[in-house]
């Protein structure tokens, strides 16, 4: 798991060959409002532009993915983002085959994310997004296919 701000995105562009395209989209979305929806990027990556009201922890699910790395970036608002090593979690719903997601129960550490903050979560990172005080959050989730 990596957490930082888009101001320092250049530090992470060499982590994956598709990260430069992902970060270019995120930087553009920070400058110019994008409509809610799905945007196709290079190499099978795609971006999901979202707008929602943050929720209580009880109404948020812990999830993990196998085929995609998530780069989740708050464009506007504030979100508490839960993270934990997937090995510390108890899976209760496996949808890896159909939707590349499984859901878990367990404890997470909370990161505070505000305008321009992003988190990169890999397959070993269980994560619980969308937590907060009910305030509006504008966010982009870029899904980057695993390689190798």
Total domains: 1
Helix fraction, binned, reads 10-25%
CATH C-level category: Mainly Beta
Radius of gyration in whole Å, from Cα?
Answer: 14 Å
CATH superfamily, by name, is: YhcH/YjgK/YiaL
What order do the helices and strands follow?
EHEEEEEEHEEEEE
What fraction strand?
A: over 45%
Structural class: mainly beta
Termini separation comes to 19 Å
- The geometry reads as globular
Side-by-side strand order of the widest sheet = 1-10-5-12-3-2
CATH level-two architecture: Sandwich
So how many helices?
2
CATH topology: Jelly Rolls
| Sheet of most strands | 6 strands, antiparallel
Mean pLDDT: 97
The stretches of 5 or more residues where confidence is low (pLDDT under 50) are none
**Strand segment count:** 12
Overview of this structure, please?
- The protein is mainly β and 148 residues long.
- It has one domain: Sandwich (Jelly Rolls).
- It is 11% helix and 49% strand.
- The chain is built from two helices and twelve strands.
- It has helices at 19-31, 96-99, and strands at 2-5, 37-40, 46-53, 62-64, 68-76, 79-85, 90-95, 101-105, 109-113, 117-121, 125-131, 136-145.
- Strands 1-10-5-12-3-2 form a six-stranded antiparallel β-sheet, with helices on one face.
- Strand 2 (37-40) and strand 3 form a beta hairpin.
- The longest helix has 13 residues, at 19-31.
- The radius of gyration is 14 Å and the shape is globular.
- The two termini are 19 Å apart.
- The relative contact order is 0.30.
- The mean pLDDT is 97.
């Amino acid at each position: 798991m990596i957490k930082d701000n888009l101001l320092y995105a250049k530090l992470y562009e060499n982590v994956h060959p598709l990260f430069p395209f992902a970060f270019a989209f995120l930087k553009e979305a920070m400058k110019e409002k994008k409509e809610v929806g799905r945007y196709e990027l290079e190499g099978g990556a795609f971006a999901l532009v979202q707008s929602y009201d943050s929720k209580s922890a009880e109404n948020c699910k812990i999830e993990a993915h196998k085929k995609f790395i998530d780069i989740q970036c708050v464009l506007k608002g504030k979100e508490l983002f839960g993270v934990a090593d997937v090995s510390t979690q108890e899976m209760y719903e496996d949808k890896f085959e159909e939707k590349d997601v499984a859901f878990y129960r367990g404890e997470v550490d909370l990161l505070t994310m505000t305008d321009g903050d992003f988190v990169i979560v890999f397959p070993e990172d269980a994560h619980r997004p969308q937590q907060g005080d009910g305030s509006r959050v504008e966010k982009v989730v870029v899904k980057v296919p695993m390689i190798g």
